[in-house]
Amino acid sequence: MWDPAPSLPVLAAPMAGGASTPELVVAAARAGGAGFLAGGYKTAESLADQVGAVRRAGVPFGVNVFAPNPVPVDRREYRRYAEAVGDLASELGVELDVSHPTEDDDAWDDKIDLLLSDPVPMVSFTFGIPDRKVVSALRRAGSRVAQTVTSAEEACRAATAGADVLVVQGSEAGGHSATLTPRRPARPERLADLVGRLRSLGLPIIAAGGLATPGAVAEVVRAGARAAMVGTVLLRTEESGASAVHREALASPRFTETTVTRAFTGRPARALRNGFIDRFDRGAPHGYPALHHLTSPLRKAAAAEGEAEAVHLWAGTGYREARAESAERTLRRLGSGLRGGGQRT
C-alpha cells in the first residue's frame, strides 16, 4: 500500500471536471510525489480507462470519489432559480432542462465496484464518509483509505469509520468545500493550526487548501502534515486538463479576487469572482447535485465560447502562483522550502 509521505511530500490534488489527467498524476509521481485521479462526474468506465493509463506508468497514485451526501433542493426554489439562469442560457444558445431537479449519486455503486475489483493504492472520499463496510472492503482489497475533512468533528467521524489517512482541507481551497455540512460549513481556521490540532488522532495527515508557495507547504509540514496537496497551482501546467478559458482567467488582471459561492452547483465552492456570481449568487438556493446538473450545459457552452464571465473558475486563494510550466517544475519548486525536499528552480 502507498505511503502518504513520498520522497517529495507535495501531492497533486484530484480536480473533478477534467483538470486532473493521467498525465498530471504521472508527472507528480515522477517529481517524487504522487497524484490523485478525480472520479467525480465520470462514469465508472471512464475512470477505469484513466486508472489503466496511470497503472501502465507504474507509479503510486490515488483515486478520489464523491461520497453521497446530497443537499436536497426545494422544488419551488429550484424552478425560480432555473428561470433566472435560463435567461443567460438562452443568450448562449442553450436550453436548460428545468422540468425537475436531477439528484443522482454520481454512479457511486459502480465506482466502488470498480475499485474493489481493480484496487488502487489509495482511495480518498470527499463530501461524505462512506459506510464502514465500504471502508473495510477497500482495505481488504489492498487500498489505503483517505477521508477529506474540514474540522475536528469531521476528522473524529472519519477515524471512527476506519480511515487510514486524513486529508485536511482548509477554507482557502479552490473548488468545492469538502464540508460534510454544506448548509453550515465550519468556521474558517488557519490550515496549519487545524493540522496541529488533529495530530492527536494519530492518523497521517495530508494538508490541502490554498497552498501555493514553498513557505505555505513548509508551514503545514512543520505543523505535522505528512504531505501537502495542491490543486489550483497546477491548473496552468502543461499536463493539466483545465479549459483554455480557465487557464487564461487565472493569469488575467480582469479577475482580482476569489469568493465562496453556491451559484454554480448548490454547494459552497471557491472560485474567481465573475459576472455569473455577481448576478446569481445571492439568489442561489442550496441544492447539490441539482444545481450542478442544471447549470452544467450553460457552463460548458460558455467555456466553449471563451466566455469567462459565465464559467465556474474554481480557484484557491493562491491562484496567482499558478504558472505555465511543467507540473514537475511546479511541484519541485513548492517542495524547495523543505529540508531535503525538492530542487530549487
How many strand segments?
Answer: 11
Helix proportion: 25-40%
- Average of the residue pLDDT scores: 95
CATH superfamily of the domain at 1-70 and 105-237: Aldolase class I
Summarize the structure.
InterPro entries: Aldolase_TIM (IPR013785), NMO (IPR004136). By secondary structure, the chain is an alpha/beta fold. The chain has helices spanning 22-30, 44-57, 75-91, 108-117, 132-141, 152-161, 191-198, 214-222, 244-251, 275-280, 290-304, 327-334; strands spanning 10-12, 34-38, 61-66, 122-126, 144-149, 165-169, 175-176, 205-208, 227-230, 258-261, 269-272.
What distinguishing features does this structure have?
12 helices; 345 residues; 8-stranded parallel beta barrel; disordered C terminus; single chain; 3-stranded antiparallel beta sheet; TIM Barrel; 11 strands; alpha/beta
Describe the structure.
Helix 5 links the parallel strand 4 (122-126) and strand 5. This protein is globular. The protein has a domain at 1-70 and 105-237: Aldolase class I (TIM Barrel, Alpha-Beta Barrel), CATH 3.20.20. It has 12 helices and 11 strands. The relative contact order is 0.17. The strands form 2 sheets. Strands 1-2-3-4-5-6-8-9 form an 8-stranded parallel barrel, surrounded by 8 helices. A 3-stranded antiparallel beta sheet has the order 7-11-10, with no helix packed on it. Helix 1 runs parallel beside helix 2, helix 3 runs parallel beside helix 11 and helix 7 (191-198) packs parallel to helix 8. The model is unreliable at 341-345 (pLDDT under 50). The chain has 345 residues and is α/β, with parallel strands linked by helices. It has helices at residues 22-30, 44-57, 75-91, 108-117, 132-141, 152-161, 191-198, 214-222, 244-251, 275-280, 290-304, 327-334; strands at residues 10-12, 34-38, 61-66, 122-126, 144-149, 165-169, 175-176, 205-208, 227-230, 258-261, 269-272. It catalyses: 3 propionate 3-nitronate + 3 O2 + H2O = 3 3-oxopropanoate + 2 nitrate + nitrite + H2O2 + 3 H(+). It comes from Salininema proteolyticum. InterPro entries: Aldolase_TIM (IPR013785), NMO (IPR004136). Belongs to the nitronate monooxygenase family. NMO class I subfamily. Its cofactor is FMN.
